[in-house]
Amino acid sequence: MPSTSWSYRAAVRLGVALAPVLGLVDRKMGDGHRRRRGAADRLAWWATSGRERARPLVWFHAASVGEGRQAESVLLELRRLVPACQVVYTHFSPSAEPLARRLEVDAADYLPYDRPASAERLLDALAPDLLVFVKLDLWPELATRAAARGTGVALVAATVSPGSGRLRWPARDLLRPGYASVGAAGAIAGADAERLVSVGVPADRIRVLGDPRFDSVAARVAAVAPDDPLLRLGGGAPTLVAGSTWGPDEAVLLGAFARLRARHADARLVLVPHEPTPDHLVAIDRRAAALGLRAPIRLSAGEGPAPLLSVDRVGILATLYGAGTMAYVGGGFGRAGLHSVLEPAAWGVPVAFGPRWRDSRDAALLLEAGAAASLAGAGEAAIASLVEVWEGWLTGEEQRRAQGARARAVVADGLGAARRSAEMLAGLISSRCPRT
Predict the structure, then answer these.
(1) Where does the pLDDT of residue 432 fall: very low under 50, low under 70, confident under 90, or very high at 90 and above?
(2) pTM of the full predicted structure?
(3) Please, are residues 244 and 339 in contact by the beta-carbon 8 Å criterion?
C-alpha cells in the first residue's frame, strides 16, 4: 500500500509553520489558517453524536467554491442513489465557507492540515466508507492512510491541465503516493485521463465521465426565479455583464466602454469584481473618471439599471449573467486563471474573455462552437479587440443570438456527468462489506 515520504511530511510541517507568517501578508491565507484551527476537534465532536455506524459515510473534499459546486451536483445525485448514506464535506479555502454551510450534508468544516495525527484521528472518528476528492485537490497523507484502512478513495471531476505543476518534479514525486491510492477516478475528458496516469493514478481505475460542473451550472440557472430583481438590471438595453473581473480586465473593459459609448449611447456595462473590496471599487471609480466616464453606480445604492454599474455584493454572479445580452469573463489577463465561462453560456449569451484561456477546457469548447471570442494581445490591442467584438454584438443582433444559442447548446451537451459520477461512487459503496 503506498505511503507518503519523509520529504512530503517535512514539506507539510514547513508549510504549517510558515502559514501564520504568510497570513500576515495574505488575508485569505490568514483567514484560512485561523479557521482551520480546531476543525479536527469540531469534526470529531460531531462524530461522537452524529455518526451512525450502521449507515455508510461518504466524505467529500473540495478545495474552493468552483470545486464545491462540482461536488454539490454529485453528492445530490448520490443522495438519490444511496439515501441511507451520511455525507461529510470539507474544504480548504475560506471562500467556500458560505457554500459549505448550505450544502445538504451531515457535517461540514475546514480540512485540517495534511499531517499523520490529524488524518488518523479523523479516520478513526468518522470511519468513512468512501473518501472523495474533487477535481485534483487530493491530500496524500489522508488518502494513503484511508486506503490502508480499506476505505475507498475516489476522484470525481478529475482534470489535470497541461501546465499543472503536479506533472513536474518535485510535486509529482511528493504527491504520487496519494494518487496511487485512488481506487476509482472519474476524469472529465480523455486528455485528463492520460495526465492522471502521469501523476500516479492507475490507468485501469480511470473512467471518462464528463464534468459535473455542467449539471451544477444548469441547475443554478434553472433555479433563478423569472421575476428576480437582478434580472431587471439589463433594463431592456444592450448590456454586457462582466463577471469575476480583476484590475487588468477592468482596464480593458472600461477603455472599450468609453469608446463604444460615443457611438452607442444605449450600451451598458455591469462590472462584477472577483473581490469587491472597498479599495477595489474605489479603483474602478478612479479608472472610470480618468476615461471621462460617469461614476459607476453601486448595486447597493438600489437605483436599478444604469449605464455603468459596479456590483458590491458576492454570490449573485450566476443570476446577474441572466440580466445581460452578452458577457465577459475575467481572469484571462493574469495568473489567477480564467473564471467559469459556463454560467453565461447557460443563459444563452455569447462570451468574451482575455487571451490566457488555454487551461480552460470550457473556454475551448465555446470557441470551437463559435459561441465565444478571445481577445487579442494586451493593453491597447486588447481594448481594440474588445471594441470590435462588443460592437459586433451591438450591431448584429441575429449573429449575437445565434452565438448565444450555440453557447447554451454546449452546456446542454455536457449534462449527465454528475449522475455518472454518483453511479461510480454508489458502486464503490455497494462493493464494500455490509456494515455491522
Answers:
(1) low
(2) 0.91
(3) yes
